[in-house]
Amino acid sequence: MSAAYDLRVAETEADRAACFAVRRDVFVTEQGVPQELEYDAYDTDAVHVLAVREDGTPLGTGRLLTGEAAAVKNGGAEDVGALGRLAVAKTARGLGVGAALVGAIEGAARDRGLSAVDLHAQTHALGFYERLGYEAYGPEFPDAGIPHRAMRKPIG
């Protein structure tokens, strides 16, 4: 498969549907997360980022929460965005799509004047986020039955 892909904010209904399809494949089908936990009220106002191959095939997605929605996830800091629901299609793993999505989400956070980005990483993915400059803090906790750690990166 070619590594050529584009990143964009999901502005259209078709783009948002593509984001949700990747999330369904990765989280619901592969990881067994209940569908009612995967999609939530935060999806409505989140900034969704989409990676698509030149032929239109969706490769990955992630979202940024800001303001009160982010503060709920990060311990109350409204100047810190919350990166979440980062998912890369099985066929696109190893191509740098995940790192590119994280970079795009950080850019969206910077554009909104945020000072840092917080996330809840599945523990098997800690090394991925550490390589991108995130530092873990706090204890391990379960989310949808999967062990996670909170992580943060200043983006100022």
Can you tell me about this structure?
The protein has 156 residues and is α+β, with helices and mostly antiparallel strands. Helix content is 33%, strand content 35%. The chain has five helices and seven strands, in the order E-H-H-E-E-H-E-H-E-H-E-E. Strands 1-2-3-4-5-7-6 form a seven-stranded mixed beta sheet, with helices on both faces.
Unreliable segments (pLDDT under 50, ≥5 consecutive)? none
Alpha carbon gap, first and last residue: 36 Å
Task: Going across the biggest sheet, name each strand in turn.
Answer: 1-2-3-4-5-7-6
Radius of gyration (CA) equals 14 Å
Mean pLDDT, to the nearest integer, reads 94
Major beta sheet summary? 7 strands, mixed
- β-strand percent reads 25-35%
For the secondary structure, the number of strands is 7
Going by helix content, strand content and strand pairing, the class is alpha+beta
What pattern of helices and strands is seen along the backbone?
A: EHHEEHEHEHEE
Helical residue percent?
25-40%
- In one word, what is the shape? globular
The total of helices stands at 5
How would the blueprint of this fold be written?
Layout: E1 5-9, H1 13-30, H2 35-38, E2 47-53, E3 58-65, H3 67-74, E4 80-88, H4 97-111, E5 116-122, H5 126-131, E6 135-143, E7 146-154
Parallel strand pairs: 4-5
Antiparallel strand pairs: 1-2, 2-3, 3-4, 5-7, 6-7
